[in-house]
Design brief:
single chain, five-stranded mixed β-sheet, 95 residues, 2 helices, alpha+beta
């Protein structure tokens, strides 16, 4: 049985979403200010915890920030901790 996780930017709701087999499993909310993506809150549905989806969501969101040429402001403790564990994203953090 394959479990496929898909990450999308729901710009209408200002959040990156992760879907597992078509169901919303979690999201990372953000605010846009100029060229900065300010991450404010990340949440994984309790029924999906322990599957590594939070990390996949953080990685997908940060990869999208990089692809759009923006900088990240990790106010959310989860995104901040993820960047701390993955130094390849440190260059994305706005001064």
């Amino acid at each position: 049985m394959s479990m496929s996780a898909e990450i999308t930017n729901n710009a209408a709701q200002n959040r990156y979403e992760i879907h597992q087999d078509g169901s919303l499993a979690g999201f990372a909310e953000y605010r846009l200010r100029d060229d900065r993506v300010i991450f404010t809150h990340t949440e994984i549905d309790p029924s999906y915890e322990g599957q590594g989806l939070g990390g996949k969501l953080a990685r997908g969101a940060l990869d999208d920030v990089r692809a759009t040429g923006r900088k990240a402001v990790p106010l959310c403790p989860f995104i901040k901790a993820y960047i701390g564990k993955h130094p390849e994203y440190k260059d994305l953090v706005a001064d």
